[in-house]
Amino acid sequence: MADRKEPMTADAARGDQLMSLFDHIGELRKRLIVVIVVLLIGMIVGLVCADPVYNFLINQEPVKGMQLHAFSLWDAIGMYMKFAFVIALIIVLPVAAYQIWSFVKPALRVQEQRSTLLFVPFVLFMFLVGLAFSYLVVFPMAFNFTTKVARHLNLIETYGIYQYFSFMFNIILPISLLFELPIAIMFLTKLRILNPKRLRKMRRLAYFILIIVGVVVTPPDFISDSLVAVPLILLYELSVLLSSVVYRKQLKADQAWEAEYGQ
């Protein structure tokens, strides 16, 4: 009589689960190493490109013709590092998005793998759109408001190079990253972590958080706050709409699968 296959013991099953967990941790570690390496390469590229970017920006309004000072020996180095980080972020974002996709790819169906891969280039696109909006719209408003207050108090405007660019990057980076919201929500919907119903239930909390962000990064007046908060709220509603599109396609695909294989 052929030997029967022994049933898997609890210890063996636990060992398989641990192996699977360690495999996932090892895979995640590889993805993180790739992202860190690309970030470091991006920092090097950023340091090389810092000069032309800096020369371009200081010839644009509102800083054109303004004298910028160094109040510390580290100010110039700090300025270079900020530019290098932003340039590196532009380079590393699509790579990080691809690594996240590669990590979750085995858990997706073939059709879902192809559709989610299309999100990767849009990560860079949305970040650049957010960068343009925050630099061309939000930052000038914030700068003009602060200079008006200084002049109203008869203060002599003496700006440091590090302080100026820190002020600029502290405004444009959070807003630029928030422009990734539609892509992130669509991706999480594809993974079945989020759905439109849950997003609608979270609407009040999301509005509150986005309004707080708008108030924090803009001058304390209603018009400026609205010019930032309203586009962010519209981004959230766009995210809910896109999530609904993805969710309906998932339901249709599930119904088709059940009709074909459920019987």
TrEMBL record:
Family to which this protein belongs: Belongs to the TatC family.
Role, per record: Part of the twin-arginine translocation (Tat) system that transports large folded proteins containing a characteristic twin-arginine motif in their signal peptide across membranes.
Regions that span the bilayer: 32-57, 77-104, 116-141, 161-185, 205-223, 229-247
Name of the encoding gene: tatC
GO biological process, one term: intracellular protein transmembrane transport
Keyword set, alphabetical order: Cell membrane, Membrane, Protein transport, Translocation, Transmembrane, Transmembrane helix, Transport
Membrane topology type: Multi-pass membrane protein
Annotated organism of origin: Paenibacillus taihuensis
One annotated GO molecular function: proton motive force dependent protein transmembrane transporter activity
Record localization: Cell membrane; Membrane
Protein's name according to its UniProt entry: Sec-independent protein translocase protein TatC
Quaternary assembly: Forms a complex with TatA.
Main location (coarse class): membrane
One GO CC term, this protein: TAT protein transport complex
Residue ranges that the Swiss-Prot or TrEMBL entry lists as coiled coil: none
